[in-house]
Design a protein that fits this description.
elongated, single chain
Length: 191
């Protein structure tokens, strides 16, 4: 058993990733995300603050999409990945969110099962397995980050609309009270 583990350890060391470089913290540090975190957990006092959070989310989502396009897809569209029967592509949903997806070359077939099949295929060069694994890990993480930011932004925009509606109802009622008091005050002044 120990011999088998030791052999597996040396085999894994032989399969180092070299073609794909995952995103590092320095790349994320350049994003304007610090105000986003502070703005997420605070007492919101009205529509304006919610609109601001929604805008921060849209901006951060755009930055994450740019990272996905310029850093991850750019690497995935170069040699040696161009030799594979599947490609990492971007897909824009009807809601406008961009996600990274695996797609079979020459067909419209998509999904993580393509990546799984590729990794299990004995024709896939062993030297690419670590890179394919790192690429899939990066795809999963970026898709999650994009999804979360998009969802929070959508929720913030919906909250802003609800707050505006609440403001309108409140303002209308205040106007009714002021008008009612104005009518009540006029007869008292005449007496």
């Amino acid at each position: 058993m120990a011999l088998q583990q030791s052999t597996q350890g040396s085999n894994a060391a032989d399969l180092q990733q070299t073609a794909f470089q995952p995103l590092q913290q320095t790349v994320f540090a350049s994003l304007q995300h610090a105000p986003f975190y502070k703005g997420l957990l605070k007492p919101f006092k009205g529509k304006g603050a919610m609109d601001q959070l929604a805008e921060q989310c849209r901006s951060l989502a755009a930055d994450l999409n740019a990272l996905a396009q310029e850093q991850v897809l750019a690497q995935a569209q170069r040699y040696p990945f161009t030799l594979l029967p599947i490609r990492l592509t971007h897909q824009v949903t009807s809601a406008g969110t961009m996600f990274l997806r695996w797609q079979e070359v020459g067909t419209r077939r998509m999904g993580v099962q393509l990546w799984e099949e590729l990794c299990q295929d004995t024709k896939t060069p062993e030297s690419m397995l670590a890179d394919l694994h790192a690429l899939e890990q990066q795809r999963i993480a970026l898709n999650m980050q994009i999804s979360l930011v998009h969802s929070i932004g959508r929720q913030a925009a919906e909250c802003a609309e609800k707050m505006a509606q609440a403001d309108a109802v409140y303002t209308e009622r205040l106007q009714q009270i002021i008008q009612s008091r104005g009518k009540d005050a006029a007869p008292q002044q005449e007496a």
